[in-house]
């Protein structure tokens, strides 16, 4: 089995596409998955999931959100509508090519996946939501984090630069080391930005608030995966969403990892759970062959 990686042609022709994987022998119109990275992140966050899904028989489209993988100034110029437009663009392409389309997202990407499912019930066959971020209430957050929404309404809050630091939401020190090095060198294309301004956080907060009333309207089968030790977003987040979605939900709680579950120690389980969940919905048998009618 071969896995082809499309970067130059696809990425240059489609600015919203980070990369695309597909099996060389698979049916071109077979099931597809959109992968959506997090705020100030990069499509690289999703590669472990992409490889597993591709090997299982899915074509994989990794979205590159507007304003990401460049400078912090690029990110500040964009808001949640721009980020969502990136998802819409890739989704429209996938729907034209494939008979069924699934969507998985990390952090901000999970929120964007939910919004897409609310807007396109007929073309989103299933969801996988990683590290949902409705509230920043993880163990590493300061006690006054609940004041963040009010702070972000001030001019000082909008211009404030929140700088990431160790452990960079990765528990495994060996896996964390190259990510930290890339961030500190400003290699945003590889590891995402080290800092986020308050303006971008406010955009995400406003988007999350807007999304909450949509949850009961979302009927697509959904897999929620969250780390018990998530340093940024506590278990209130997946529990809130799971209780309010309008369709069937499977929740998986992980140990031994932090917020970036697609990069950390449990990344293989995240990928495997996603492949199994989407595979059952798409009629793909274990091992990658499609079954059913």
TrEMBL record:
One Pfam family in the UniProt entry: Hydrolase_4
GO cellular component, one term: membrane
Domain Serine aminopeptidase S33, first and last residues per copy: 32-265
Source species, domain of life: Bacteria
Gene Ontology molecular function: any one: carboxylic ester hydrolase activity
Name of the protein this chain belongs to: Carboxylesterase
Provenance organism: Magnetospirillum fulvum (Rhodospirillum fulvum)
